[in-house]
Amino acid sequence: MSNASIEAIAAKSGQPFPGAPNNWQRFFTFSTDHKVIGIQYIVTAFVFFLIGGLLAMVMRGELITPEADLVDRTVYNALFTMHGTIMLFMWTFPVLNGLANYLVPLQIGARDMAFPRLNAAAFWLVPVFGTLLMASFFIPGGPSQSGWWAYPPVSLQNPTGNLINGQVLWLLAVALSGVSSIMGAVNFVTTIFRMRAPGMGWFQMPAFCWTVLSAQMIQLFGLPSLTAGAVMLLLDLTAGTSFFDPAKGGDPVLYQHFFWFYSHPAVYVIILPVFGFFSEIFPVYARKPLFGYKFVVVSSVIITVLSAMVWVHHMFASGTPSWMRMLFMFSTMLISVPTGVKVFAWVATVWGGKLRLDTPMLFALGGLVCFLFAGITGVMLGAVPFDIHVNNTYFVVGHFHYVIYGAAVMGVYAAIYHWFPKMTGHMYYEGLGKLHFALTFIGVNLNFFPMHPLGLMGMPRRVASYDPEFAYWNVIASLGGFLLGVSTLPFILNMISSWILGKRAPANPWNAIGLEWLIPSPPPVENFEEIPIVVSGPYGYGSHEPLVANNPAGELNSEHR
Description:
The chain has 561 residues and is mostly helical. The protein contains 17 helices and no strands. The chain has helices at 3-13, 34-62, 73-108, 116-135, 166-194, 207-238, 252-263, 265-286, 293-306, 322-334, 336-350, 359-382, 384-390, 394-424, 430-448, 451-457, 471-501. It is globular, with a radius of gyration of 24 Å.
């Protein structure tokens, strides 16, 4: 019996069925509905985002004075290790998987993901490895203290002598995270290749789906490297092997290759879907087609290919041969070209448009500004002499956080606000949204900009105490960090109160173009009563051409505006 049949029977009996859009209990079950799984990912990720943020605020509290006077140095090591791990593996990847889970089937006209049970299993691994990671706070010796990259030989140290220690739990969690992400990648790639609506050719597909496809292809070729490296390091730590242990003839630099072969492309796994958010949001709030649509989507594919050829720029200071330095400096510079194509396309899309500065547009514009700054400093770090000069200083930390928080997190916020009415059937409160944006944008720049002059002055990263000459910029950075912590409060208030009390949302509150806006809010269980037949591209604002030949919503809602 299909979900539609179950829905019909339940409607006649007057009882909500388990997957009904108005049944909140569905979010606490093993559901195979991609929309439920998407929201489960998003909410779970945001819980870990708050935990990782609290750890960051403790670190900024320590760094507000030059002396190590708030926490013990070993505790500080554990704080920055767990902060980085949680924010990457428990927040960024899951929240992007959640948004992609929710949106991709709707945007391509599918009723669900290709493998619904595999989709659910991939999600339920997240609380499993999240619990493993958090359990390390409560065992003797505490969490891992070797950083989120876990370089040996530091990560091979086991001062407690216990078989179950923080580093072992960290490695198990990272390996399970890799398994979950590979399962998700197989699902996304299959869904996009095989389940697009009739008439939706490759260049009729929304840019967001292109970026998800590109990011998941990186997961498929890159994640086995990280997962294998984590398993080999785990064997060194527990079974006495010597893959990376220099005391036994192992090669610790080999681990760096395993780690960075995935972990630099992982930045593109994060930022590519955010590029997709920008490409979806700018046309809606500028009331213009996406400029250079084909160039934008092809540039995503080029980034995917080039991402496999840049990892060694993280190892310029690791005894890398000169010829390799030159080769990877060139490839690092080269990848900025397709990225620049996207930036120019977004600026051209916004230029001359009828801008509507609602909260999603504000976050998208703010994320773009931060990404521009991160791109400039990224090109600087791609140059060998400069990279060696600022290696392991706060300049690198500032650049990385402008990418991950300034661009990626603000892009995620833009997406959540933009599709919130579709997900919940309610409108958010615009005033709280704009307050959230103002606090976030100011907090990002106060927190992360001072790290650049600190790095140029020579302040090393991963230290709990520092020379007093660095105090001025650290005070400003800490104040910005606390402001970022406060900025989450209006967001939480907005999401909860709007979902419960917010005004009912129409199917298409933004007058946007796309298949997801042709169905009710929130969408029915199987998304479309009738699979749409796509007859035009996704960004035809002002063209007055129909998007679909048939109307899945049964309403006159398919004309481009």
